[in-house]
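Risk register update: the risk that structure generation would not scale has been downgraded. Supporting records follow, first protein first.
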Amino acid sequence: MTFLKLIRYKNLLLIILTQVLVHYGFLKALHLPVLLNHFNFTLLVLATVCIAAAGYIINDLNDVESDLINKPSKTYIPHYFSENFAFNSYLVFNIGGVGLGFLLCNRLGLSNFTTVFVLISALLYVYANFLKRVILIGNLVVSLVVASAIFILLIFDILPFLNSFQKELLTPFSVVRDYGIFSLLLNFLREIVKDIEDANGDYAVGIKSLPIVLGLERTAKIAGYISVVYIFTILGYIYLYVQTNVWLFLYLVSAVIVPLVIFCIKARYADKKKHYAYMSRILKFIMFTGILSLGVLTLTLKFK
């Protein structure tokens, strides 16, 4: 069980849920032409999960000193696993993930697309070792990698068929793309909040994150301002594309907009570690409810 915590099994389950919802709960549920059959989709999910698990391990390996300060009770290296064991596990997951990606691409006749898996793996390594120390750039890169769990389905499920079935796939392509962008933006906000939570340890090891440069409370307020931008962006999206879909409209308002408003209020007055932890939990909740909205969209379209 401790090893599962090391590889962040809850986050991995969310990745699986996200990809299953996009592939089966949206694209195939609407009987759209997609490239991946059951076996190939399983390969894609396993490759994604393995690379993500490797990313969590290499990140923990590079954060041992700061994690001992920030979250000593949740530090698995070196309390439960040696650094050597952790690095070997990283190699196994990483090679396994890229290898599965290579197998998938060869089965599909898309050998050049193996670069996608290599790039994601490389970005996670570079982030953990270098980019994490660069203000905002590191946050943006890791957010892009997290959102790639959605974008990768655009590449393998829809893109090869887009020219042949443009009429059928153009709108679904746009929907999945928009979910990927929303995932990126939400993760970017969560990375800022995580930097606030980890400020003490980051300061001790010389990482100059945004909270260390600007201060915790000021950064929390900036996170609140960003969430206001997100709220109006989503409201604009709802007005343009969702207003005629009553059930999806109600779901997005209650399960995404309202929690973001709560986050905004909490960010305005946050000044304690427990406040920042609560903000992080709100964003996790929004990530979960946000991807579930894709299922709501599918149901409303099928029974319209």
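Supporting record for the second protein:
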Amino acid sequence: MAEPFDVPIRDESIRLGQFLKLANLVESGAEAKPVIADGAVLVNGEVETRRGRQLVKGDVVTLGPQSARVSDESAYDDLPW
């Protein structure tokens, strides 16, 4: 399994279906629903079938060979411009 890449979020939490789209693991929310329902998505190494599952910073979501970690948007604020 690949090392997870960080995906910053603005709020304290985000729903699983939204995060899959934000992380570009699925094309749309409509695509997220069956993938989650089929048990193809892991959250922190465990199968998750609830699209509305609340994710918080540090959670790792895996779909197939890709993994994404929920991270803090403020970690990306040191831009030089």
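The chain is about 20% helix and 35% strand. On this basis the risk owner (M.S.) recommends closing the item.
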